[in-house]
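Entry, Tuesday afternoon. Goal for today is a structural model of the target with nicotinamide-adenine-dinucleotide bound, before we commit to ordering more compound. Inputs were pasted exactly as handed over by J.K., no edits. I checked the ligand SMILES twice against the vendor sheet because last time a stereocentre got dropped in transcription.
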Amino acid sequence: MRLENKQAIVTGGAGGIGRASSLALAAEGARVAVVDLDGAAAERVAEEIRAAGGEAIAIAADVSSEPDIERVVRETQAAFGGIDVVFNNAGIIRRTTAVETTVEEWDRVFGVNVRSIFLMCKHVVPVMAAAGGGSIVNTGSGWGLKGGGQAISYCASKGAVVNMTRALAIDHGPQGIRVNSVNPGDVNTGMLREEARQLGQAEDGFLAEAADRPLRRMGEPREIASAVVWLASDESSYVTGSALVVDGGGIA
Ligand SMILES: NC(=O)c1ccc[n+]([C@@H]2O[C@H](COP(=O)([O-])OP(=O)(O)OC[C@H]3O[C@@H](n4cnc5c(N)ncnc54)[C@H](O)[C@@H]3O)[C@@H](O)[C@H]2O)c1
């Protein structure tokens, strides 16, 4: 197993990519703290892990809140005795142009997608550094690298995630902490259905368009989880500051 004796935090752990990654990290031996705004859904994922013989706790938290992040770090340390891996994955999208976006919506998207990662790193880096290192993986997006239509706050926030990842890698590499982003294309999760709803489009047509890429299909959450496990594990020991694209060829 690639993550034996490792402790991991996964934010947005009850959602499509977060759940698949929580299960995949646990299957490789990691103890997992499943963190989500939806505490009951996080508890169901933790229960799934325990039913499969793994170790997991669930923590209800809003990742944009500093007191919540401090509590997540404290409770994970108390439960597992350390933190080796963090997957900063919670995210939201608003499918609007600059003209249509309110300041409140802009701030909420940046709070959940960007401030959350700054806050988690602020509180978890000292813990990792004291233990000799760790691996942080942040969820960016293809749209953080190339842009996309009718999602101005989301595209800006994911661009920030990609570059914040590089800056974190530079600052904390000397402490043995690797920081990388995983950048999915369209993945079969609730977020895509939410986008169809926000745009007022039929789900079927929206999902068919999402499959229009060289591999002729959307990604499945477990295919992002595989990349997360690799970045979390020592198999990627010389990889830091990178933006790994997992998108069926959609960006090329
Ligand atoms: N699905 C895609 O096509 C796609 C593509 C590129 C990037 N992403 C990114 O992948 C990540 C995971 O998204 P997903 O597709 O699994 O979507 P999802 O909606 O299934 O999961 C997101 C999870 O985050 C949680 N969450 C939202 N706000 C939160 C908050 N303030 N605090 C704690 N948890 C919160 C939600 O409750 C949910 O469980 C996001 O960062 C998203 O931007 C998704």
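Strands lie at 7-11, 31-36, 56-60, 85-88, 134-139, 177-184, 243-246.
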